[in-house]
Amino acid sequence: MDIVGFLKSQFICHLLICYIFIVSGLIINFIQLFTLILWPINKQLFRRINCRLAYCISSQMVMLLEWWSGTDCTLYTDPESYHKYGKENAIVILNHNFEIDFLCGWNFCEIPGVLGSSKVLAKKELSYMPIIGWMWYFLEIVFCKRKWEEDRKTVVQKLLNLRDYPENFWFLIHCEGTRFTEQKHQISMKVAEAKGLPKLKYHLLPRTKGFAVTVQCLRNVVSAVYDSTLNFRNNENPTLLGVLNGKKYHADLYVRQVIHILIPFKQERIPLEDVPEDEQECSTWLHKLYQEKDAFQEEYYRTGTYPAVPTVPPRRPWTLLNWLFWALLLLYPLFQLLINMINSGSSLTLASFAFVIIIASVGVRWMIAVTEINKGSTYGNNDNKQKQK
């Protein structure tokens, strides 16, 4: 292992990275709190400012993937569509198989410069999570309790509020509702059998109601649907801990507009007006899309590639520059404090510092555990509660 790789694997480096992320994130959350005074005066200015503040947080995560771990993300897409990225609002359908698929989704948003304004449909519990959850609150993220009878009115209102959003945005949605596991897949396929739906090999059944409402509320605001499929080469099993350790992964992201099974892998753009507005028809459309998506996934496993010309988009420097800014701002006072504590020679002071380090390490491990599949949501594991949304 070279010296750079050795340093990346050291826990002290991980602590410093997490210190920068946590402290800068809390500072930004605090600034966001003060932007609330702008909402009744100039709502659009409030939104533009919070897009930039949110970028300061989320781009640090993307920096870890791009610059720290050096992960290569190869993009496969139609060149005509590629030139439209970032110039139109879009709904982005993502598969949900990996611990860092959210991070690769953010990386995809960074390519055309819509990371700061990107939206998601997220579970309500995340809104209470410091830094990212609080950041999402100011970005007007759509939170749901995963109980559709309670969620519908709130989700509709939140989506309608985005109709006059001043920045181009991508709305990222995992239609499966939860990460793929074998247990969840078996339960999901029992539901498919009960409902008379074709079984899927590599995906869970999509929850269609949230997608249908999203299409209804954002029609005439969102221009297109991007269906994205993420895979990693050589059966890599990427984790956030691996990224933090500087491990390099090789991601393949295919952004397709539609794939016809009868005309294999033909690409066409999906304008939003081509997606049915009626809830039942939209549900049928989405199920068909996932059947096509499943056939496409099988083709990837068979060939190890996508049927398109690969492109490795150049890394934008802003994620790295943003992180360097916060590192320079926050590391100097930390080292100054550490030097003063050592010079003081006080046993109580040093013990207090050691205690803080232990608490910080526990906090870092907790944040990483949030992304781990085996410690993730149990949503979809209960056969009796497996109701398709």
UniProtKB/TrEMBL annotation:
Catalytic activity: 1-octadecanoyl-sn-glycero-3-phosphate + (4Z,7Z,10Z,13Z,16Z,19Z)-docosahexaenoyl-CoA = 1-octadecanoyl-2-(4Z,7Z,10Z,13Z,16Z,19Z-docosahexaenoyl)-sn-glycero-3-phosphate + CoA; 1-octadecanoyl-sn-glycero-3-phosphate + (9Z,12Z)-octadecadienoyl-CoA = 1-octadecanoyl-2-(9Z,12Z-octadecadienoyl)-sn-glycero-3-phosphate + CoA; (4Z,7Z,10Z,13Z,16Z,19Z)-docosahexaenoyl-CoA + 1-hexadecanoyl-sn-glycero-3-phosphate = 1-hexadecanoyl-2-(4Z,7Z,10Z,13Z,16Z,19Z-docosahexaenoyl)-sn-glycero-3-phosphate + CoA; a 1-acyl-sn-glycero-3-phosphate + an acyl-CoA = a 1,2-diacyl-sn-glycero-3-phosphate + CoA
Any one Pfam family match given in the protein's UniProt record, by short name: Acyltransf_C
Chief location category: endoplasmic reticulum
Top-rank EC class of the record's enzyme: transferase
Gene Ontology biological process terms in this record: phospholipid biosynthetic process
Keywords, sorted A to Z: Acyltransferase, Endoplasmic reticulum, Lipid biosynthesis, Lipid metabolism, Membrane, Phospholipid biosynthesis, Phospholipid metabolism, Transferase, Transmembrane, Transmembrane helix
This protein's pathway: Lipid metabolism; Phospholipid metabolism; CDP-diacylglycerol biosynthesis; CDP-diacylglycerol from sn-glycerol 3-phosphate: step 2/3
EC number(s) on file: 2.3.1.51
UniProt subcellular location: Endoplasmic reticulum membrane
Residue span(s) of domain Phospholipid/glycerol acyltransferase: 90-212
GO MF: 1-acylglycerol-3-phosphate O-acyltransferase activity
Listed GO CC annotations: endoplasmic reticulum membrane; mitochondrial outer membrane
Ranges that cross the membrane: 12-41, 323-342, 348-368
Membrane topology: Multi-pass membrane protein
Protein family (similarity comment): Belongs to the 1-acyl-sn-glycerol-3-phosphate acyltransferase family.
Biological function: Converts 1-acyl-sn-glycerol-3-phosphate (lysophosphatidic acid or LPA) into 1,2-diacyl-sn-glycerol-3-phosphate (phosphatidic acid or PA) by incorporating an acyl moiety at the sn-2 position of the glycerol backbone. Exhibits high acyl-CoA specificity for polyunsaturated fatty acyl-CoA, especially docosahexaenoyl-CoA (22:6-CoA, DHA-CoA).
Name the UniProt record assigns to this protein: 1-acyl-sn-glycerol-3-phosphate acyltransferase delta
Encoding gene (name): Agpat4
